[in-house]
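Render this sequence as a predicted structure.
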Amino acid sequence: MRTLPLTPAEYRNALYIDFEGEGKKKDGTVPRPHMAGLFRPNPTGKSGKHTCVFFSPLWKVVANHFQKIAVIEDFADYFENLSLELNETKQHLVFWSVHEEMILKKFLPKKIFERLLPRLHNLHPIARRYATRRRSFGKNEPAKGKTLEEFFAVLYQKRHPYPPFPLGAAKACRLIDKACTRHNRWRKFTVKQQSCADALVEYNGGDCKSTWLIAKRLGNSYDSQSNS
């Protein structure tokens, strides 16, 4: 997996992914994520299209609610198809931290992961080097340990950050699991359950878009340095 920055064109042509799930449990195990969001930047500008894939048939009600932007698909099948697409188009799959690569390695068959590996791109080390060199967090404030939201805030000070998710993805996923177990129609969900599902997808979209915008800033910066 590359540790060097991509070109501005490669970052724009890349896909941006973020998982949501219950995270690490008390016994140290990490369960398979409930969903992944994928962001595809437009050919120009800062916008793009955010879609979701849910990895459990249990979430069919939620997928139907989101209609064209969400699907239900098996984890391995989804990433097998995505790996074929990325290798054919020479696109990269960009993510914010090593967590995404760890999840892919843990839950994908070795053959699929190895096909996907050359197209994976962890943005965090590049962002950390960039912020350290520019002292983006202040003269005596290290970039190490800063979150995606903190990086976005210092790199895009004039933009409003994407809304936080106080409930947290882990609790949201458990709440949605419970709702889907009890109800087979979206209208039977409580207002709290519906709001939770909407907020989870919105939060995921914000993280995917933030990663894209940080990548865009980094790609342009390193490109201007190499041409100077």
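Summary. The first strand starts at residue 15 and ends at 20. The chain has a mean pLDDT of 93.
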